[in-house]
Automatic annotation (TrEMBL):
DNA-binding region in chain numbering: 42-61
Top-level taxon in the UniProt lineage: Bacteria
A molecular function GO annotation: transcription cis-regulatory region binding
Domain HTH tetR-type positions: 19-79
The protein's name: TetR/AcrR family transcriptional regulator
Keywords associated with the record: DNA-binding, Transcription, Transcription regulation
Listed Gene3D superfamilies: Tetracycline Repressor, domain 2
InterPro entries: Homeodomain-like_sf (IPR009057), HTH-type_TetR-like_transc_reg (IPR050109), HTH_TetR (IPR001647), TetR_C_15 (IPR041669)
Signal peptide, first to last residue: none
Length: 209
């Protein structure tokens, strides 16, 4: 990865006002990502929209990739919270259908709460400085799903659980990114399709266990 020192904030804000300002920068950046995309996002545009000079912005983030890095970290934090809440469920008592409904709805909420998610995810995948976070995102979800699949007695084989976790990630991540940008009717149908595909995946795997 490129020099991390250049990508992370110069200092961690300790005062409440500074922390609020930092969060404002991240929120505005997420909104701008939705409007202009990653390529046209600049520190000048962010500073102007927030209402500060570029020099002041640099006290918080040295460049736009540092802002995107922090925004991606915030997104991953929300994803971690969602996964922990799922793992807190009494999963062993759930049917596969109920598990799919609960887990898919919980992850959808996480996706819906992140503005500018599609361009952010594209940046995490395509920008070298953010690749580390993209890999962390994938590994975190795969590991969490593998643990839950084991509790559902779908398999006890670590490599099989990892394979299923990766398939779950690839299918759900792709469709959830579509769903959050669809109108209400199409989103409902696509969500139903995602749940059907996910249930089929788990039922087939469990039948072979």
């Amino acid at each position: 990865m490129a020099n991390i020192r250049k990508l992370t904030p110069r200092s961690t804000p300790v005062q409440k006002r500074a922390q609020e300002r930092r969060e404002q920068i991240l929120t505005i950046t997420a909104q701008l990502l939705e409007e202009v995309g990653q390529d046209d996002l600049t520190t000048i545009l962010v500073a102007k929209t927030v209402g500060m000079s570029v020099g002041t912005l640099y006290h918080y983030f040295p460049n736009k990739y540092a802002i995107l890095y922090a925004l991606a970290e915030r997104w991953l934090g929300e994803m971690d919270v969602g996964l922990r809440k799922l793992e807190d469920y009494p999963i062993e008592t759930l049917s596969l259908k109920k598990f799919v409904e609960i887990s898919t709805d919980r992850m959808l909420l996480t996706y819906q709460n992140q503005e500018g998610l599609l361009p952010l995810v594209q940046a995490m995948f395509g920008v070298p400085e953010l690749k580390e976070l993209d890999s962390h995102h994938d590994e975190t979800i795969i590991a969490a799903m593998a643990r839950m699949f084991k509790r559902l007695e779908i398999s006890n084989n670590p490599s099989e659980l990892e394979r299923l976790g990766r398939e779950w990630l690839e299918v759900s991540h792709a469709l959830l990114l579509v769903i959050v940008h669809q109108d209400t009717t199409d989103a409902a149908r696509s969500l139903s399709d995602l749940k059907f595909l996910s249930l089929c995946l788990l039922e087939r795997a469990k039948s072979q266990f």
